[in-house]
Amino acid sequence: MNQEHEAGREPVFTKEQLLRSTRWAGTLKDVLKSQLADGESYTHQQVEQIVTTFLKRTVE
User: Fold this and answer.
1) 56 vs 34: CA distance, rounded Å
2) What's the number of CA atoms in the CB half-sphere (13 Å) around residue 45?
3) How far apart are CA 57 and CA 14, in angstroms?
4) Is the pTM higher than 0.70?
5) 3-4 and 41-42: which strand pairing?
6) Chain segment 35-44, per-residue pLDDT in tens
7) H or E segment at 22?
8) What are phi and psi of 6, to 5 degrees?
9) 8 has a pLDDT exceeding 70
10) N- or C-end of the chain: fewer Cβ atoms within 10 A?
11) pLDDT (tens digit, 9 = 90+) per residue, 12-48?
12) How many Cβ atoms are within 10 Å of 56's Cβ, its own excluded?
């Protein structure tokens, strides 16, 4: 159920598909829920960057 990324051959996935995936488990799914936009598509590389940025942020 994935689509091909417009700029290349890298598969993209919706927020809903990523949340159903076994690749992202536990609290990381909570990060995805809060950081990914509904109706948008993401590559695994984009999702990894979003998660990494979220986890490395400074909390003030």
Assistant:
1) 15
2) 3
3) 24
4) yes
5) unpaired
6) 999 999 999 9
7) none
8) -60, -35
9) no
10) C
11) 999 999 999 999 888 999 999 999 999 999 999 999 9
12) 7
